């Protein structure tokens, strides 16, 4: 069974991103940062680190939901960044937090991590921090696929 799981991972890790290549407008920048952050979190932090959970959940669920919600219902823009909305930033924090807590429960069922209110609070702090940095104009210049995982790692290292 373990060999089958390894082979399924082998197939999907390469093939799934390949399916999305036609949708990418830029060649390397954002997709490269995104994949590199997830690969580093996976290879360095693996299954027992709440930092990896926070990083991946805020980058994937948080940032993804922020863009969708922000474009659809984000009429009221942030005063410090007219390209971002209150709705998108709030959606990012909520989605990143809920995904992190959900993954905490999931990993707990396999015995990889211990659930706690302290960790839950830590996920909330990391999610709010990543939503703030994603809404900042610097994330447009540097790319939020770089700033969000970096802030997740730094804040997560301090609090988780």
Q: What secondary-structure arrangement, pairings included, does this model have?
A:
Blueprint: H1 2-20, H2 29-45, H3 50-73, E1 77-78, E2 81-85, H4 86-109, H5 117-135, H6 138-142, H7 144-159
Antiparallel strand pairs: 1-2
Principal-axis shape: globular
Poorly predicted spans: none
Strand content: under 5%
Largest beta sheet: strand ordering: 1-2
Q: Give the N-to-C terminal Cα separation.
A: 33 Å
Transmembrane segments: 7-24, 53-74, 86-107
Protein name: Phytol kinase
Membrane topology: Multi-pass membrane protein
Keywords: Chloroplast, Kinase, Membrane, Plastid, Transferase, Transit peptide, Transmembrane, Transmembrane helix
Give an account of the 3D structure:
The protein is mainly alpha-helical and 160 residues long. The chain has one domain (27-159). Helices cover 78% and strands 4% of the residues. It has seven helices and two strands, in the order H-H-H-E-E-H-H-H-H. Strands 1-2 form a two-stranded antiparallel ribbon. Helix 2 packs parallel to helix 7 (144-159), helix 4 runs antiparallel to helix 5 (117-135) and helix 5 (117-135) packs antiparallel against helix 7 (144-159). The longest helix has 24 residues, at 50-73. The N and C termini lie far apart (33 Å).
